[in-house]
Task: structure prediction
Amino acid sequence: MKKNAILTAMTVKKDVKSNIGEIIKTTRKLAGLSQIELAERAGVGKTLVFNLEKGSTQISFENILKVLKVLNIKLDFKLPFQYGNEK
Result:
């Protein structure tokens, strides 16, 4: 993998975490839920929800899916880069 592709992948990872956090926070507020209520419904800790919304922690994909399910958010995105076709 070229250096630019690695840097792009790192930036995308950071941006994805921030974007997911913002989507979760906005959707939670529109649903009238507190962070504690969301955590209880999803079966995760309140600190996890706080950190997820900030995009500031390593969270398992399983826990992210639990939160997204409670908020009825579906994952549907494509990565803005490709593997295997680099020259």
